[in-house]
Every structure is written in C-alpha cells, then in structure tokens.
Design brief:
alpha/beta, Rossmann fold, ten-stranded mixed β-sheet, 15 helices, 18 strands, elongated, disordered C terminus
C-alpha cells in the first residue's frame, strides 16, 4: 500500500475505530440518580414526611397531613371559584404529569407516534423528555417536551394528528418554545355542547354590577363576566365567530342602567348599521358612516374633557357611576373601517381621538369597546391601549398572541383552531389576570327577539327631557 493510500485509509476507511465512544448505557443506579436530579420533589416529599414523623411523631404528622388534605377539599367545596383559579391548575397539572405524561405509557405513546429514535452506538431507544406540564383548564394541557437530537418542530407538527388520535384527544397544536423544546397544547374535548341562552335582563339598575356583567358561561359551567368600567375592551374574531353575541349580551346585562341614564351608549357601526339598527333606540348617539363617526368621536372626546374640568373643580379623582355621572360607553362595530380602511386623513383623525380618550378616560368613566376581525397593528394602531381583550375564533395562529399577549396560544388559547361554523359561534378565550392562564368561555346567543325585548324594556327617555345636574346634561 502506498503512503497516499495508507493515509486515506486512516482518515476515511475501515481503520477508523470507535475508541472513546460509549458502547453501552450507564448503570441503572446512575440513571436513577440522574432521574432524581431532574425530579427532586419525588424524593423531597417522602423525606419531608419522614423528617416530620421523626420530629413530631407519626400521629401528629398524620394529623397535619390530614388537616392539609381536608383544608384543600373544604376550599374546593366552599369556594370553587378561587379554588379553580389558583389551586386546581397546579393540582391537575401535577396529577396528569405523573399519570399521563411519564414512564412507560409516555414512552409507548412516543414510539407509536414515531417520535423516538434509536441511539446509533448503544441501540437504546431515545424518548423525548417531558420538562413541565401546565393545565390551564380541565380540558386543556400544555406539555413542554425536549426533543430528541435530530428532530425539529416541523417534524413534530407533521405528526400532530397522529398524537391526538393516539391520546384520543380532540385536538393537538405543537409550537416551538425554545431551542430544542416544543410546547404541545392538548385539547381533550370541547366543553360547550349547546348554545348558551341570552342572559336575563336585570330588573333594576341596582341589580347591575358594572364591574362584572354576565356575557355567557365559562367551561366550568359558571357565569362568565366582564367589566364595563375601569378600562377598554377589544373583541377580535373572524366573521361569524360571535362578536355580536358579546356585544348584545353586554347591552342586555346593563339594560336597566341604559334605561335609567346610568350608562349611555355611543354606537359606531360603519357597516351601514345593518347589525345594530334594531337597537338604535338604546343609543345616546349613533353613527353609520365615516363623517358621522368623526363627529361622534369628537363629541365623545369633548364630553370627556368637560367632565375632567368638572372633576378638577370639584376635586374628584375618580367618578362613581350614577345618573349625574353616567358611564359613557363607546361601542365600535368593525373597528378596522374606522382605524385602517378609510381615507388617510379620516383615519388619522379617528386614531388621534381614540388615543386621547383611551389614555385619559378611565377615571372619568369613558370606556371604549372595539370589535374587529383582523387584530394586527396595521389595522388597530391603538391595540395596546385596550386593557381587556377577548379572542373568539380567528383565522391565523398569530392573531391569538396579537390579541391576548405573547405566549397565550402556547398556554392553551387555541382560538385559531375553533371551527368556524354556527355550532361553535361565541366560543373564545380571555386571559385571567391573576393566574395569567387562558380561560375558555362561550358568549350567550342573543336572538332578534331578545334584542326586541331589550329595546322594549330598556329604551331611555328621549333627549328632550334634559336637565342639568352638577354642570352636566343628563337625560
């Protein structure tokens, strides 16, 4: 063999050896130690109980543990709202972490779905490792998984349908969380099997809580409420997603306040008033084209300024809803027609008026509710000024995070996966301010007869009967 051929053999040929490479797996004891290092709680909990038993005695330790368990049970039975908000997600995630997403069951699932690999040197099966489980609701889990080397997000997304069929789940969405880690959002089932009837109209204004107006039901079967005061609301959803259900359910919930002058509705509907004309008697001001809308916005802004002057004179920091100081509610149906699709001059004027109201109107009870289909920054330049956001069924995954905030879809808000048919209209997500987890709800369906009832019972008196109270015109 020549010197040249000998060199080639050393570099590329059979002379290459596996010297220095592992040919078998580490011992079981070291694998167990590594597993415990990744799951310290598995060892810490028994050691803590053993330590308590040594220090306090087994009887006292059993009594303490029993009291803790009893306290959790009593909390869940006595005040389910706070239990479901704070404790249930953590307990549910822990339970599912150890009963569904671990051990041989998880390994078999990954193998059946083609998501494992064989170590080319040892022949061991490499299984994607679960790092964390979050359970935002009884029907939605988010599982963070470290992929096996050589896999990418696209590889996993191709197998998403195989995964949810294997899990017998309703739907699975897979996104990239960080390098080497995917977030698997598992939707076990759709909780809403029937249409939610329109909420009853309260009898009197005293029966209305403007900080929690009933709109529909959440997936736990509890009333889903949202405030009318204290901020501004953005509702995004594709055509037919149920934006009208949110709008009219809100108006039914505050109906007596509209009738008594505690809430005044300023309606802008640039679709010619087709979907809101039936409720026109309820509105303090009404605009159906761009010119009228700009006049209405200017009047709304000027009313806010006048009331701010009165508040300064009377040394009032925050107004309280009443006939003398009503909530001024500006509702804009199909907001994009006002903020993006009109002529440039009109759009700039409208955005300037909205920005002024939304940055200054909270204390003086001036609120804005905007409804739109496409929530991008180009369409709604004032998007970040909305403090309360509702995402119904949308057409793109990116729209979810645009509305609900970064990472909302990864945490389980699969609004882009909501079917677009009438059977699923009104289903959407909001972010709970306390837990920061998505809450799924369904807005009540408000029929034409329900709107007719609202108009018949809650139409305010005509503007001709105007009196002046504390410097303000009140109907």
């Amino acid at each position: 063999m020549t010197k040249r051929s000998s060199s080639a053999t050393r570099i590329n040929g059979p002379a290459r050896t596996q010297s220095g490479r592992a040919t078998r797996a580490p011992g079981r004891e070291f694998q167990a130690a590594a597993w415990l290092a990744h799951h310290p709680g598995f060892l810490a909990a028994p050691l803590a109980l053993l330590g308590l038993a040594v220090v306090l005695g087994p009887i006292v330790t059993g009594a303490v543990v029993g009291a803790l368990v009893l306290g959790v049970v009593v909390w869940g039975r006595a005040h389910p709202a706070t239990f479901d908000r704070f404790a249930a997600p953590m307990l549910r995630a822990t339970w599912r972490r150890w009963t569904v997403y671990r051990g041989r069951r998880w390994a078999r699932l990954m193998a059946d779905c083609g998501l494992t690999r064989e170590h080319r040197h040892t022949g061991d099966q490499l299984v994607p490792r679960v790092l964390r489980v979050r359970s935002s609701s009884p029907t939605i889990d988010t599982v963070y998984v470290r992929m096996v080397r050589g896999q990418d997000v696209a590889y996993w997304q191709e197998r998403a349908s195989v995964v949810y069929e294997a899990l017998i789940a309703h739907r699975v969405a897979i996104t990239r969380h960080r390098p080497g880690v995917v977030a698997i959002v598992i939707e076990w089932e759709l909780p809403f099997t029937r249409t939610i009837p329109a909420p009853d109209i309260p009898e009197t204004a005293e029966d209305v809580d403007l900080g929690a107006v009933e709109i529909g039901d959440n997936e736990r079967g509890e009333a889903f409420t949202a405030p009318v005061i204290g901020g501004h609301r953005l509702v995004a959803g594709a055509s037919g997603a149920g934006k009208g259900s949110v709008l009219w359910s809100t108006l039914r919930g505050v109906g007596p306040c509209i009738r008594d002058g505690v809430v005044r509705v300023w309606m802008v509907d640039l679709k010619g008033g087709v979907e809101t004309e039936q409720g026109a008697p309820l509105f303090h001001r009404y605009a159906t084209d761009m010119a009228q809308a700009l006049d209405l916005l200017t009047e709304f802004r000027d009313a806010m300024r006048d009331w701010q002057d009165d508040m300064r004179e009377q040394n009032i920091r925050a107004a309280t809803p009443s006939v003398a100081t009503p909530v001024e509610l500006l509702v804009i149906d199909e907001m994009a027609m006002l903020t993006a699709y009109g002529d440039r001059s009109s759009v700039r004027t409208a955005l300037g008026l909205l920005a002024e109201v939304m940055t200054q109107g909270r204390a003086s009870l001036f609120s804005v509710h905007g409804y739109l289909q496409e929530p991008s920054k180009d369409v709604v330049d004032v998007r970040e000024l909305f403090t309360q956001r509702i995402c119904l069924g949308v057409t793109a995954a990116s729209h979810v995070d645009m509305v609900l905030g970064e990472g909302a879809r990864e945490r389980g808000a699969l609004a882009d996966e909501i079917p677009g048919d009438a059977r699923h209209a009104g289903i959407g997500f909001v972010i709970d301010r306390g837990s920061r987890l998505p809450v799924r709800f369904r807005a009540a369906y408000v029929s034409d007869d329900d709107i007719t009832e609202l108009v018949a019972r809650c139409t305010p008196p005509p503007d001709a009967d105007v009196i002046t109270i504390d410097g303000r015109d009140v109907a």
